[in-house]
Amino acid sequence: MTLAPEHPNCALHEVAVRFSPDGTPMAIRHDGGIWMVDPDIHADHWFTQDAAGDTPREHWQVQARLPTAGAELRTFTLRREPLDAAWRLESIR
């Protein structure tokens, strides 16, 4: 399954994210596969306010690919809601 930015009303799917000791995403488990984040490509990390303006949402945008020969590099945008430990897949391009 692929979520695309042109479908902003799609339900966000929970994904498992593995982080490095410095807090950068290293791998994403999504749709039965483990996508490896390319450490040589800059990852974007930012925060936005939730609707109540109390607690910030956390976002990451990373480049990742499946660990198979010739796998395409994709852009993953991840989001974590305030007070939620789970990461959600916002889009894949």
List keywords for this structure.
disordered N terminus, 93 residues, mainly beta
Structure in words:
There is one protein chain. This protein is mainly beta. It has no helices and 7 strands. The chain has strands at residues 13-19, 25-30, 33-37, 44-49, 56-65, 74-80, 87-92. A 6-stranded antiparallel barrel has the order 1-2-3-5-6-7. Strand 6 (74-80) and strand 7 (87-92) form a beta hairpin. Mean pLDDT is 87; it is low at 1-10.
Overall shape: it is globular
Termini separation comes to 12 Å
pLDDT below 50 for ≥5 consecutive residues: which ranges? 1-10
Helices and strands, in order, run as EEEEEEE
Mean pLDDT: 87
Q: What is the alpha-carbon Rg in Å?
A: 13 Å
Distinct helical segment count: 0
User: Helix- and strand-based class?
Assistant: mainly beta
Spatial order of strands in the largest sheet:
1-2-3-5-6-7
Q: Which band does the percent of strand residues land in? A: over 45%
Q: Tell me how many strands there are.
A: 7
Roughly how much helix do the residues carry, as a percent range? under 10%
Question: What is the makeup of the main sheet?
Answer: 6 strands, antiparallel, barrel
